[in-house]
Amino acid sequence: MFLSVRTRMRHAFVWIFPASLVAAAVAPLASFAQDPAPLSLVEALKLAQARSPQLAAQAAAISAADSLIVSAGQRPDPQLGVGIDNLPVDGPDAFSLGRDFMTMRKIGISQEFTRTAKLQAREAKAVAERDRELAKVIGARTEMRREVALAWLDCYFLEQRLRVLRELEGETALLTEAARAALAGGKGSPADPILARTARVQVQDRIQEIARDLKRAQASLARYVGEKEIVRPLDKPPSFNVLPHAPNEFLQVLEHHPQLLLYRPLEAMARADIAQAQAAKQADWSLELAYAQRGSSFSNMLSIQAKVDLPIFSKQRQDPVIAARNEALRQVRAEREEARRMHEAEIKRMLADWETARERLKRYWQELVPLSREAAAAALAAYRSGRGNLATALEARRTVLDTRLADVQTQAELARAWAQLNFLVPEGSAMKEVK
Predict the structure, then answer these.
(1) For 98-123, b where at least 16 C-beta lie within 10 A, e where not — what string?
(2) Phi-psi region for residue 86, left (φ > 0), alpha (ψ -120 to 50) or beta?
(3) Beta strands per DSSP E along 180-300
(4) 3-state DSSP call for residue 312?
(5) How far apart are the first and last CA of the chain?
(6) Do the beta carbons of residue 181 and residue 193 sit within 8 Å?
(7) Environment class of 410 (CB within 10 Å of its CB; exposed 0-12, middle 13-18, buried 19+)
(8) Contact, 390 vs 195, CB < 8 A?
(9) Cα–Cα distance for residue pair 378/385, rounded to 1 Å
(10) pLDDT in tens, the chain (435 residues)
(11) Which homologous superfamily does the CATH classification assign to the domain defined by 37-89+101-433?
């Protein structure tokens, strides 16, 4: 028997009402789950460091170099020798091991005793090589942090440019409708809607261009943080008025620059090479102990032998090597000084960029952006009242667009200069507020 309409509606309500309550309760949770947390610059740096294969490879290089330090200062392993002396090859005793009194089956052990100065020089070079790998890791980590920061900032300010363009696209759309309405009301020029539509298409073209640049920047950032993190919105950036040091103190911390830190172990390696070359003029010596067994009719023999190097031609052998090693040390020191001067000039340029961007940004915020908006508002009001034309209003809006985009570009320049300075040396310096 068919149920009545009222009965069917009652049954449907019994099922639908609890389901609607569940859906209402689950909807906020689903919305919360679909909205990822913003990706901050600090988190991006941590993700990049945790995912970096380069840092993992260099950590392995440090471990390998550290393992070689102990063995570098050790003498060579002893040598075991086994042989036969004075074996006859013809006559009635040919190839007999026991009939000739001179034939001996010998076993012995020898040890080379390397001079302590040579061992110390080898160990010092191994330590310097380990320190070189450490300096490489510090440099790679610092460089990676700077590149991640620049990639993150590129994405952030490209998004800001897109936001400005889309906002102004909406305004040009309103101007297009206003031009059409004015023309329908017998006001304005027939060319006004076309001009407004052209301005909107130009803004849309710039939006597409910036969107392309944003995809490129996101691809660069994804290299460090992973593809899954790119879909997250970017968090608010840090203050770009905060530097790790006051501007007049940057040259004092120049010695902590990763590239200059690398020259310290390189110089230590060069000094260790000099010490090794000088120690080569000192003679090493070796000792050999051997036991020889003869035929049963003859007594067995014990022999002891000592050997010593004779570096008597040092002018042709050791001295040229010492001279070459000294020249290599001078080369390292000269290259370090050249690098120091280059980075000193680089810091001065960065500080000039940072300070100039700060001053320009103040001018944009205090004068240029407000003035362009006032001019655009006045031109639009004149057009709506019939005292102006649309071309002037559109040109004023274009000036607002260019000024706001230049404002964002100046913020990006300030941010890039900040990142270059903030990640110039390894992390750990105290942050100071620059007023």
Answers:
(1) eebeebbbbebebebebbeebbbbbb
(2) left
(3) 242-243, 285-293
(4) coil
(5) 85
(6) no
(7) buried
(8) yes
(9) 11
(10) 334 434 433 443 333 334 333 334 444 443 444 677 999 999 999 999 888 888 888 888 888 888 888 888 888 889 999 999 888 888 888 888 888 888 889 999 999 998 888 899 999 999 999 999 999 999 999 999 999 999 999 999 999 999 988 888 777 776 666 667 656 655 656 666 777 777 778 888 888 999 999 999 999 999 999 998 888 999 999 999 878 888 778 888 888 889 899 999 999 999 999 999 998 888 889 999 999 988 888 899 999 999 998 888 888 888 899 999 999 999 999 999 999 999 999 999 999 999 999 999 999 989 998 888 888 888 878 877 777 777 777 778 788 888 899 999 999 999 999 999 999 888 754 333 333
(11) Outer membrane efflux proteins (OEP) (1.20.1600.10)
Distances (CA, A) of 121 to 46, 112, 360: 39, 17, 56
| Contact of 48 with 225, CB cutoff 8 Å | yes
* β-pair type (301-308, 79-85): unpaired
Residue carrying the six token digits 């027939």: 190
- In angstroms, rounded to a whole number, what is the distance separating the alpha carbons of residues 386 and 182? 10
Q: How far out from the chain centre does Cα 279 lie?
A: 40
Rounded CA-CA distance 421/248 in Å is 13
Both structure tokens of 13: 């309500």
Task: Write out the H or E segment, with its range, that includes residue 81.
Answer: strand 79-85
How many Cβ atoms from other residues are within 10 Å of residue 63's Cβ?
11
pTM listed for this prediction: 0.76
> 398's torsion region: left (phi>0), alpha (psi -120 to 50) or beta?
alpha
What does the angle CA 64 – CA 70 – CA 74 come to, to the nearest 5 degrees?
130
> Rounded to the nearest 5°, which phi and psi values hold at 302?
-125, 130
Residue holding tokens 């019994």?
Answer: 14
- Residues 77 and 330: their CA atoms lie apart, in Å, by 35
Provide the strand spans (E) within 242-397: 242-243, 285-293, 301-308
